[in-house]
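Incident log, support desk, overnight shift.

02:14 A customer reports that sequence design results differ from what the structure should imply. Their input is reproduced verbatim below. On-call engineer (initials T.W.) acknowledged and began investigating.
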């Protein structure tokens, strides 16, 4: 029932390609600039969000995660993918103008479908 077309929504994602060392004035800083490929789309069932909220000495921690289900072979989402769920990234020149709102925490391939655990993130800009 999850994989019925009427239960699916459009998901935008892009996969990690490479990383390069960060330099400032010709000196390496130790940081890395990650490069991602072109944005792709797929249709997937998105399960409702579940999560926890706790208070710690250094602030409150809130975790929200969801599950995606799609047919095997419909997408190539992996552990390093960035996702846009429930929003349109407004693609210009193969690059999004809106920052991603989910990251992947795990991928499980089954007999007929793939299950992806995703976590909500807040990104300040793209």
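02:41 Re-run completed on a clean worker. Output:
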């Amino acid at each position: 029932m999850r994989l019925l077309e009427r239960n699916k929504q459009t998901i935008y994602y892009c996969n990690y390609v490479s990383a390069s060392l960060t330099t400032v004035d010709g000196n390496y800083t130790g940081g890395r600039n990650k490069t991602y490929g072109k944005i792709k789309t797929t249709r997937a069932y998105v399960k409702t969000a579940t999560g926890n909220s706790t208070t710690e000495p250094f602030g409150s921690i809130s975790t929200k995660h969801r599950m995606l289900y799609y047919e095997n072979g419909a997408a190539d989402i992996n552990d390093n993918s960035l996702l846009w769920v429930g929003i349109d990234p407004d693609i210009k020149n193969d690059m999004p103008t809106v920052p991603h709102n989910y990251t992947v925490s795990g991928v499980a391939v089954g007999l007929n479908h793939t299950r992806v655990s995703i976590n909500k993130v807040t990104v300040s800009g793209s």
